[in-house]
């Protein structure tokens, strides 16, 4: 990754104010025109911009500035960065290892069945396949359709769970809310629930009969308890 100078004009302002470098050296380092650097030195350009110290940002060393001040022909060089920023990868189809390419049809079948909201382009990004293959598997015209078995692409190692969740979330954003028919059974209205069925009424009647029978049992018990007391009284 090519190194680039941060905030060229702000850096040029700092170099003009704090060093004895020539306009050509500053212009070459900051990728500016020498006349623009001269206008900065005269206060005709870059007004209101605060100078940026390239030494504090780690883009230039004091020794490099001293060498350039001693030699007008010396060209300033950016310091090596302490932290390497990885290059951004080119977006394209996901690479699938040769050993796992035979599992792609099974993964496509799993995605088609379990996540029908995914578009062909999203499935292609997840498992690294073509739209024609996805269409063949979806329409059961693939040459090996009879032997295919749906398998989770995450389990197969074709994609990560995070990538799969992100694609599913993207696909679900534009979907309309499910209707009552899609959700299945719905709640009954209050009028329907207030209508008691005959079976429910019979159950209530049985419960009442049970309560009556219980009262009769208690009456019998009380009469049995009082009977021995009466006999004792007669003996005396």
Q: State the major sheet.
A: none
Work out the helix count. 12
Give the CA-CA distance, first to last residue. 121 Å
* Element string (H = helix, E = strand): HHHHHHHHHHHH
Structure summary, number of beta strands: 0
Characterization of the model:
- With 236 residues, this protein is mainly alpha-helical.
- Helices cover 54% and strands 0% of the residues.
- It has twelve helices and no strands.
- The radius of gyration is 43 Å and the shape is elongated.
- The model has no long low-confidence stretch (mean pLDDT 77).
Draw up the topology in text.
Elements (H helix, E strand, L loop, with lengths): L7 H11 L4 H8 L3 H8 L20 H9 L33 H11 L5 H8 L3 H8 L14 H4 L4 H13 L6 H4 L6 H5 L3 H38 L1
Helix pairs in contact: 1-2, 2-3, 5-7
In short:
This protein is mainly α and 236 residues long. The chain is built from twelve helices and no strands. 17% of the residues are buried.
């Amino acid at each position: 990754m090519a190194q680039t100078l941060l905030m060229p004009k702000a850096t040029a302002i700092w170099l003009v104010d704090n060093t004895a470098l020539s306009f050509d050296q500053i212009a070459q380092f900051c990728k500016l025109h020498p006349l623009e650097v001269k206008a900065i030195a005269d206060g005709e350009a870059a007004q209101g911009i605060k100078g940026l110290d390239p030494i504090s940002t780690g883009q230039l060393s004091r020794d490099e500035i001293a060498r350039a001040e001693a030699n007008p022909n010396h060209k300033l060089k950016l310091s090596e960065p302490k932290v390497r920023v990885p290059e951004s990868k080119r977006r394209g189809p996901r690479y699938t290892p040769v050993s796992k390419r035979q599992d792609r049809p099974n993964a496509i079948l799993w995605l088609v069945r379990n996540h029908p909201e995914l578009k062909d382009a999203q499935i292609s990004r997840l498992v690294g396949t073509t739209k024609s293959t996805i269409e063949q598997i979806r329409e059961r015209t693939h040459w090996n359709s009879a032997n295919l078995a749906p398998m989770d692409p995450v389990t197969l190692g074709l994609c990560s769970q995070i990538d799969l969740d992100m694609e599913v979330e993207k696909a679900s954003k534009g979907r309309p809310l499910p209707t009552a028919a899609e959700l299945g059974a719905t709640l009954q209205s209050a009028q329907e629930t207030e209508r008691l069925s005959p079976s429910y009424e019979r159950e209530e009647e049985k419960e009442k009969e049970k309560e009556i029978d219980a009262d009769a049992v208690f009456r019998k018990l009380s009469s049995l308890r009082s009977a021995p007391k009466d006999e004792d009284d007669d003996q005396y």
